[in-house]
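User: I'm putting together a small comparison set for a docking exercise, and I want a reference complex before I start. The sequence is below, and the ligand is MIG. Could you produce the 3D structure with the ligand included, as structure tokens?
Assistant: Of course. I'll restate your input first, then give the structure tokens for the complex.
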Amino acid sequence: MRRGCFIAVLMLVSAVTAYAQWQSVGDVAGFTTPRPGEFLIDAGAAKLRVNVLAADVFRIRLAPSGRFTPDASWAVIKTDWPQVETSVREDTGLLKISTSDVTVEIRKHPLRIAFLDSRGIIINQDDPRKGMAWNGDEVRVWKSMPGDEYYIGFGEKAGRMQRRGTHMTMWNSDIPAYGADTDPLYETIPFFYGIRNGRAYGIFFDNTFWSSFDMGKASRDQYSFGAEGGGLDYYFFAGPAPQQVLSRFTELVGRMPLPPLWSLGYQQCRWSYPNEARVREIARGFRERQIPCDVIYLDIDYMDGYRIFTWNRQNFPDPARLVGDLRKDGFRTAVIVDPGIKADTAYHAYRTGLAGSHFLKNPDGRPFIGKVWPGECAFPDFSRAATRTWWGENFKALAEAGVRGWWNDMNEPCVFDVPTKTIDLGVIHDDEGRKTPHSANHNVYGMEMSRATYEGVRALVPGERPFVLTRASYAGGHRYSSAWTGDNIASWEHLDMAIAMCLNLSVSGQPFVGTDIGGFFGYPGGELFARWLQFGVFTPLMRGHSVINEKNKEPWEYGEEFTVINRETINLRYRLQPYIYTVMEEASATGVPAMRPLLFAYPGDRNGIWNDNEFLFGEDLLVAPVVQAGATTRSLRLPEGAWFYFWTNQRYEGGHDVTVPAPPERIPLFVRAGAILPTRQVVQHADQAPIDPLTITVYPGALQSHSRYYEDDGLSFEFEKGAYFRRSTDQRNSPTATTLTFGAVEGTYRPPRRDVVVRFVDVQGEPASVEVDGSRLRSVARSAAGKETEGWWYDSGDRTVTVQLPETTNERRIRLLPK
Ligand code: MIG
């Protein structure tokens, strides 16, 4: 791409001679403190502004001309940070701004910034030679790069999780059939972690222009980031734990709203189910084979000539009836929407769009027209509030027909007939009244489209949480939408890469991620599909998809043997639903994602930074997908502590590598010792039947451990008013007793009356007795166990004690007393 070459040349040149065109920031002349926690530093014509937002969070802004651009951000939602105690000291040649955790040390001759921890150790510093610099509208900062510092994050990037040694561009791009070296892709999240000896810091470069990150590709001991415009404006998160960095970043840009439970079920898509008959056949395909599924998608061919918000009445004569019948059968219907509105005066969306001035315009005032699927199209200006409202209202008919899933595609935006493959850079966006060119808005176009969709649907169906899926986005876009990694390929290499991509997206603030299961392009065959589906159980978005003109890829299309395996795999997803939902609720509350790199939870583990083909799902599950054809075993790293192999409950000591069996029907999966894992009975879709029984499996840990459980109605916003069911559970293990304590239930939501089955695994011998709140529980024969049985039994075969009771909401203590 032309602009790609331009940046590459720029980097080369800047590294060699023409750096002379670049001007580095000069000496500090003085500083003022306009407000508590804000420092304004003069350096020649340039000004630097340092804001202390928290003891471990700082904002750095540079105005080369001395004039700061108006303070605006599409990503940031938190601006009212409470004041923190800050002290200032001037030494010869140094200005030091300190909080309890961090000192920002500003060297004066010339101006260079360093962040030090409370012991005076440098966390991160400007490169002494270059520091911050500009060249016309371009801005860049060079930082020192220690030999043992590594980088993760950066949103959606193909290839490995660790990014040291790479050059990356941020410019939302539709690159079908991308490879490990393709960059950029669909999303821009200019946020990364620097990790050194288990200590992490984070930097968020809040810039929507064409930007780039050179993480030591151009130089051995420097990294840099900068953009073609928009100013140098970044946030520094001091850590030291990676989780703390992410928690602060998501405090700044917001967190994922709690998704509806059904969106965490299995989802089925293809380009395209062409007509009503085929859609019904797919739905029957799942139910007849007893393969659970919650969502069926309609790709672009459901529309009339690709006109958004319309139906092809020949192929879909009665959409409301179809969608309604699917709903009765337990499915939600999701539809694709693209931003391009066909320039056709007979089309209501085009007419109302023109009348409301909703389309992007060239500088001469005429609408920008570009070709996409419908032919010549106009493009909504999602940077304008009135346009977002108009867009949202257009979903009325679809929502009334019962559609509940909203798939936003092509929103980089992709334009077919323009050399740059997107909207002309000079096209003017409203940009909330600032009237700025496309170059400033390109990277937020997809995010604002998904925002318009989310807010519109939320208003139209007020009782339900919207489910939106988007291809393009910007930092903070997870506030409105889930994301998938676009047009991948049915290959083992892509399955391997999918793990790293989902992990980097997850630690970049977007927990609700997934990939096209089985691969979009090409045909996976049974084994690859089955392995990909197994990985999909542990991606929050679990969706099968396929390109047009390819063989069918539904889970039953690979022969009976694989149908059986794929059914069991999807059953596992539904069995784990109470755990998955709890983990997603935690992500929405704290920002810590479902999918976590090992180094995130175990920053001390030396090899963690390179480990991107296994991961944690929540705190308690360790997942090591099989990503090799023909494999029957898998080697993986077990982090410190003890772990139970999920399929056999065999206990392993952690802290080293192990090899475990991985027969075709089983994904290598471990449960942390100390975990209290909630599972449920298999259902064919999320709301087919209430959880009953709720099974709680107790994996004995050292001495004591703690766990949380979350549940609500799965659909409405009532949880925001306290209608949830939350309880914590503790286990204590001692030679004299194993004790499980259920805390009293918090919140007002009450599921229907049900049994709780508590399974204690790895119990050394049959207990003498089991007590509930101090009273002996009767022991029953396993064969007598059924609904509403109260009692316990021991299984000497797998050394499990099972306790079955009706659920209560008060505090309750179960004790196993050994013989
Ligand atoms: O130009 O809607 O990534 O998932 O099936 C292709 C057709 C447009 C690209 C998406 C893909 C979708 C396809 N779309």
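The pocket of MIG is lined by residues 271, 299-300, 336, 409-410, 471, 486-487, 545 (CB under 6 Å). The longest helix spans residues 445-460.
User: Thanks, that's exactly what I needed.
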